[in-house]
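cache lookup: miss for this entity combination. No prior model stored, computing from scratch. Input as submitted by user K.M.:
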Amino acid sequence: MTKQDIINFKKWFSDFCLSYHVDNIEDQRNITLKEKHTKQVCANMVEIAQAHLGSDNEVLLAEAIALFHDTGRFPQYAKYKTFKDAVSINHGLLGAETLLSQQILTNLPAQEQHLILQCVKYHNAYKIPHSQTDETVIFLKMIRDADKLDIWEVFIELFSLPPQERASAATLGFLDTAGYSDRLIKCIYDNTMGNLKDVKSLNDYKILLLSWIFDINYEKSFSLIGGRDYIARFSEFLPQNDEIRQITAELATYVSKMAGA
Ligand SMILES: [Fe+2]
């Protein structure tokens, strides 16, 4: 893969996004959210890749994976007006199918095409499938980190806005009711990732997003999380009580330990 390939892919992606632009303000806000997210995931991915991968070619491949990872979000939203995969379509799968049908990657060696498609397909899987090769797993872990880092950034920005100005599809329709589920708190104490099926409210969803810390893979990702203070900034949007303060402290300790601090 060459630098020119990335330039061509970025041009294609920008035209692809434009083709999904609409006049409706709410719908356009949701589309813009994913375009901006993609740019930021690319920046995260390059930082992590430069820290952990050996060659320029691998860094370019990592960037291409980040650029394409949410391709499926655009046709998903156009058809179903939601980002909730469970009630619409798996956007990882749809992204890989879109790249294939549009023949975007055909210039690349077969092994690179396969790697990119596998990473797009499984970037959003609850767990990485066992069937993947060692090389794919390296990149899959990386896109999953780069994606999560920006999801925290996007939500911190989003929760700072008045509800009527937020991109409506981002919070998957969960209601902002009081309280939260003990099951999700337990996940934090168990150092495991929560499951979307246990989420009943917006607070639950916020705790679920915090539990994603336990699916982060690379030391560089942890150091970016620590440096950007995601845990403390994110926790501000949860009810302020001793239990939340305690899980926040638990998460912050885990991040510092994993960042090698
Ligand atoms: Fe995604």
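stored under new cache key. DSSP finds twelve helices and no strands in the chain.
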